[in-house]
Amino acid sequence: MDLISITAINAVLGTVGSGMANEAGKWAWETLGGLVRRTLGSETRAPAGGAQTETLAAALYRVLADDPAAAREWSELIQVVRAPEVVFRQPETPPGPRFFMNHEAEMKALDKEARRRYGGTPRVAAVLGAAGMGTTAFAKSYAARSAKLFPDGRAYVDLRGGSTATALDPAVALRQLLLEVGVEAPHIPPTAEDRGRLFRRLVADRRLLVVLDHAHSAAQVRRLIAGAPGVLTVIVARGLLPGVDAVPVEVGPLPEKHSRALLAAVVPESELAAAADLVPLVLAECGGVPYALRAAAPRLHAAGRGRRTEPAARTFADDPVTGAAERAYRALEPAAARAYRLLALRPWPAFGTAMAAHTLQLAEDETAPLLDALVAAQLLQDPDVGRYRYRPEVRAHAERTAAEEDGIAACSAAVGRSVDWYLAFGVRARKSALKGGWTVGPLYESLPAGPYPDEGRALEALGSELGNLVQAVAAAAEFGRAEAVYQLVQALWPVQLKAGRHDEVLPALRDGVRTAGLHDPRSRYAGRAHSLLGLDLMELRQYEEAEAQFLAAAAAEEAAGHPRGWASAVESLGLMRLRQWRYQEAYACFERADRILDGIAPGDEGWVDVPRARLLLVRHRGRALSGMGRHDEARERLTGALNGFRGLADAPYDTVDDPYNTARTLCDLAVNEREAGEADTALARLDEAVPLLTAEGATLHLRELARVRALCVSALERGRD
Asked: Which of 105, 114, 116, 320 is nearest to 209 (CA)?
């Protein structure tokens, strides 16, 4: 019992539980449930959070105090379970604008908060300012000048809090922070609670600046604040966020001296001199707002060259940002003005030239100059090469102007074309990123796979457009385009399955289920929508709601007469039961799914999938039996699945050649045999699995196998003592 403590047991449960962002981690969690069952003598449901984990750890400790053999097994496990090693990477805040008029007093206020004597209270400052006031530029400039104060880096996350619709979920923001400091995507925990815990652990002894830009609410930022002594969190927001204890640092309008200096920095001296008569009017209109001053540069440039500039139809005296957008818009050529209006009709996070061209019904080489003109006029931002986005207030102006000048029909048609582009892109990328697997919808039958060299590149493409795809689902749902919604949400599946970005796709999946409920509640579309949402919720460990979605999926697929989808929904429920350590119920689900597959006859849709589907169900039943401690029965099932995946003649169903699932089944057999006291046989299984997994590039599985191998070696050494 030397290594055994409630804290150590809790650490094992927490470490393995937080590793479920990848297939290897899920497998490790499910096998851990078998050890818990053996220790407690009965099936115990998996803990769903920190409090339940602590309760389970205490219960295990009480048993281990009186059971030396079980205590020895847990001691060995404690020694081999380690959190994934993270090589801390110094994050860098993106650069601010080249010409920034200093707010020296405000900078010193941030320095003061960073240097104050730490008394256990997190160091937090809130940079506050109206739209266009330069709060983002201020925060970025502070990050650039404070490198010596924060030698471990300056992290930056754009919370996109311009509206409730665009604001990042805290779990998504935590994922971005973890990526910033060096955590690899497969090692990012699935829940916000575990992500926050990992972030706090990683920065506990760091001197780090964290900039949280465009914050929307206290709820959005509260989980992102680290209490470490060396961390300063700078929240950038329009106004105070009640509920966040932060030192307020207000960024107000530039005084006239600095306003003139900014104009002098962005307009050539000779042209500014030639437009001297216009400068006082510009200063009055801009009211010291940096964005408005920058947006006035083209106007002064034109006036300095003797070109007449027309006054804006509306002045917006009380709103310098909207006024500046209006004046810049009125100076555009007609084609650029149309682009400005029609691309702003949805809050696309950052769109590319191809989508813009399709929306505008132009060629890409005609569209690119229009977008460049909008960037030059300060009406678009270009944060990345070939990507564009609007400031929230500027987009609002463009959207209002489109409604007035283009009308509802033209605006609706433009949004429809944008959705069509993302739909075609999503379907083609989905077909390239995940070959095989069944999909529902006409475009999956008619469109070819996308032009990607491999699945990884296709997955990257889907990931880069994820925010826009989610927005496209929302737009399609709003316009009542049910079939587009269904096909778009299926395009997100590789991002769920392979990239683990479950929080980000969740709003789109909910839109899919709502749309199905309104239009096709007893259809295959509804079944697929419910299944995808259930799988996402399962990964987020929201098991109660996930169960409801799987049951709804099964009912819809059964009503639609689609046994392949029906069996898949029941199988998914069984996989969730494995995750919950409810092995008996899991086994029953897999048995039922196998019986449902009996309804698919030769030549029916899905018939070609049946052999592999049945073998997976055999393997799943073996895993469930192993979790129940029925090792001989588990061995029989797993051996049958192994033979099938290897393509051997004595398999229970038609055979397939599947090296990856061959390796995974060998791993299942190794765990089952180790638990049955056959460590030498288990080691032989592992030796056979390693080269297969190595060939598949399954490095995370190999790491988990190293744990199992260490436990097998310990068991053999005990036997020799």
From this structure: 114
pTM (predicted TM-score): 0.91
The pLDDT assigned to 371 comes to: 97
Query: What gap in Å lies between CA 230 and CA 238, rounded to an integer?
Result: 26
Task: Give the bridge partners for 249, in sequence order.
Answer: 127
Model pLDDT for residues 257-299, shown as the tens digit of each residue: 999 999 998 889 888 888 888 999 999 999 999 999 999 988 8
pLDDT of residue 308: 62
Q: Mean pLDDT throughout 105-111?
A: 94
In-domain check, residue 197? yes
Residue 60: per-residue pLDDT = 94
Sheet holding 231-237, edge to edge: 154-158, 208-213, 231-237, 123-128, 247-250
* Maximal C-alpha separation, the chain: 96
End residue of a domain, out of 330, 359, 375: 330
Question: Is 550:585 a contact under the CB 8 Å cutoff?
Answer: no
603: left (phi over 0), alpha (psi -120 to 50) or beta: left
Evaluate if residue 589 carries a pLDDT over 90. Answer: yes
Quote the CA–CA distance of 428 and 449 in Å, as a whole number. Answer: 5
Assigned domain for 606 exists: yes
Question: 3-class DSSP state for residue 503?
Answer: helix
Q: Which residues pair with 126 in a beta bridge?
A: 235, 248
Q: Is 385 exposed, middle or buried (0-12, 13-18, 19+ CB in 10 A)?
A: exposed
Candidates 438, 295, 299; CA nearest to 377 is: 295
Backbone angles phi, psi at 114, to 5 degrees: -65, -30
Name, in order, each residue with C-beta under 8 angstroms of 85's C-beta and a sequence gap of 6 or more.
none
Share of the chain above pLDDT 70, in %: 97
Domain membership flag for residue 86 = no
Q: Are strands 123-128 and 247-250 parallel, antiparallel or unpaired?
A: parallel
pLDDT digits (tens, 9 = 90+) for 555-568: 999 999 999 999 99
Domain-ending residue, one of 217, 250, 283: 250
Q: Does pLDDT of 524 surpass 90?
A: yes
CB 579 within 8 Å of CB 29? yes
Q: For residues 598-625, give the mean pLDDT.
A: 92
Q: Does the pLDDT of residue 317 top 60, yes or no?
A: no
Question: Could you tell me if 671 and 691 lie in one domain?
Answer: yes
Element (H, E) at 397: helix 392-405
- For residue 23, pLDDT over 90 is answered with no
Quote the domain boundaries for residue 686.
600-721
Residue with tokens 């818990």: 36
Question: How far is 622 from 630, CA to CA, in rounded Å?
Answer: 9
Q: Give the whole-angstrom CA distance, residue 30 versus residue 620.
A: 11
Which pLDDT belongs to residue 165?
81
Q: Is the sign of the CA dihedral 646, 650, 652, 654 positive or negative?
A: positive
Residue 708 has which token pair? 């199992």
Query: What pLDDT band is residue 309 in, cutting at 50, 70 and 90?
Result: low
Which string of DSSP letters, residue by residue, matches 269-283?
HHHHHHTTTTHHHHH
Give Cα 73 distance to the centre of its chain. Answer: 37
Residue 389 φ/ψ, nearest 5 degrees: -155, 160
How sure is the predictor about 592, in pLDDT bands with cuts at 50, 70 and 90? very high
Report the share of the chain in percent with pLDDT over 90: 72
Answer yes or no: are the C-beta atoms of 316 and 327 closer than 8 Å.
Answer: no
Task: Give the pLDDT score at 333.
Answer: 96
pLDDT class of 378 with cuts at 50, 70, 90: very high
Q: Are residues 226 and 268 both part of a single domain?
A: no
**CATH number of 189's domain:** 3.40.50.300
Among 160, 158, 159, 144, which Cα is nearest to 209's? 144
Say whether both 211 and 316 belong to one domain: no
Strands 123-128 and 231-237: parallel
- Three-state DSSP at 127 gives strand
